[in-house]
Specification:
With about 325 residues, this protein is of the alpha/beta class. Helix content is about 45%, strand content about 20%. It has two domains: about 1-120 and about 305-325, ATPase, nucleotide binding domain (Nucleotidyltransferase, domain 5); about 130-300, Nucleotidyltransferase, domain 5 (2-Layer Sandwich), CATH 3.30.420. A five-stranded mixed β-sheet has the order 3-2-1-4-5, sandwiched between helices. The protein is globular, with a radius of gyration of 20 Å. The relative contact order is 0.19. Bound molecules: 5'-O-[(R)-(carboxyoxy)(hydroxy)phosphoryl]adenosine and zinc ion.
């Protein structure tokens, strides 16, 4: 089966082509067009601008994916598309393109929840190694969620963000220190030269006993600290970044490992843009080792952590809930259904 995966929920425009044979999945193409440079200039995403760019990119992106996979549009068996959550204008670009293709080609659509897509980015490269039960930590710009997966299609939300998501905290703190959007990669880079012990930032909800997250207090604490500093010299910026990164990572790891032990999982699946953070990945691996926990840790390659069509196609492979195109509508508020 050949699946075309379309993802346009935020600022990226992506199309991927994936082939599924028995239990094996083969990624044939994954094209991502980003309006990243434009959003860096405005300090964040302006939804209408993002959607206008995506309208320009979507057809060339699908064409590029087909060319790279050396396939024709008529070779596609199914179209998988993100239908939520996300920005309404952006979602509509992908959803309406998918519906048009499905109508013209007379093929089914598999609507995919963007967050579930992030989790399934892990299956692109590790399909044969992941074992259930698994715990998924989704850390993106809009979400910080912990989910239990007993098997494909059996998913329970254990906890989520009460206010700012981890990626949002990285972005907002980066902005107040003076870095462009997206803030996560900039903070990670600066943190390499910093002393994380110079500032002692809060680790919100770290010992709360539940699986919820909250990062808005961290942003306020950084803002307060920045106001007391006479200058933001480069060493101070690096130290701030290292301390912020450490505070976020400490909460993510503590809560995830707590849930992993409580639910006796065999695999932990990291996903979402923040999972691209190498210090998070390394610290997770080290903590599992130090605690002698026999849990396998998975994280997608970095290009599959941020938004991409391959993860949407992969999610559709394992959750093949197809619908006629007439039944698909974009749902910006979609959570876990
Ligand atoms: O998953 P994603 O591409 O989009 C959403 O679905 O939100 O995630 C984007 C988020 C941004 O907040 C960005 O700052 C963060 O992921 N991010 C990172 C890193 N790379 C991207 N955060 C920390 N470290 C990184 N290396
Ligand atoms: Zn995302």
């Amino acid at each position: 089966m050949i699946i075309l995966g379309i993802e346009t929920s935020c600022d990226e425009t992506s199309a991927a082509i994936l082939e599924k044979n028995d239990e094996q999945i083969i990624l044939k193409a994954n094209i991502v067009a980003s309006s990243f440079a434009m959003h860096s200039k405005t300090g964040g995403i302006i939804p209408e601008n993002a959607a206008r760019e995506q309208i320009k990119y979507i057809i060339p992106t699908v064409q590029k994916a087909l060319a790279e996979a050396e396939l024709q549009l008529t070779d596609i068996d199914t179209i998988a598309v993100t239908y939520g959550p996300g920005l309404i204008g952006s979602l509509l670009v992908g959803v309406e393109t998918a519906k048009t293709l499905a109508f013209v080609l007379n093929k089914p659509i598999v609507p995919v929840n963007h967050m579930i897509g992030h989790i399934y980015a892990n299956w692109i490269e590790h399909a044969s190694e992941i074992t259930f039960p698994a715990l998924a930590l989704v850390v993106s710009g809009g979400h910080t969620d912990l989910l239990l997966l007993k098997k494909h299609g059996d998913l329970t939300l254990l906890g989520g963000t009460r206010d700012d998501a981890a990626g949002e905290a990285f972005d907002k703190i980066a902005r107040l220190i003076g870095f462009p959007y997206p803030g996560g990669p900039a903070i990670e880079k600066e943190a390499k030269n910093g002393n994380s012990k110079r500032f002692n930032f809060p680790r919100p909800l770290i010992g709360s006993g539940d699986y919820d997250f909250s990062f808005s207090g961290l942003k306020t604490a950084v803002l307060r600290e920045v106001k007391t500093l006479s200058s933001l010299d480069s060493q101070t910026v690096s130290d701030l970044c290292a301390a912020v990164q450490q505070a976020i990572i400490a909460v993510l790891i503590r809560k995830t490992i707590h849930a992993a032990q409580a639910y006796n999982v065999q695999s932990i699946l990291l996903s979402g843009g923040v999972a691209a953070n190498q210090t998070l990945r390394d610290t997770f691996e080290q903590t599992l080792k130090d605690k002698h926990l026999p849990i396998k840790l998975f994280a997608p390659s970095k290009n599959f952590c941020t938004d991409n069509g391959a993860m949407i196609a992969a999610a559709a492979c394992y959750n093949y809930n197809q619908s006629p195109w007439e039944d698909i509508t974009a749902n910006p508020e979609l959570y876990f259904d």
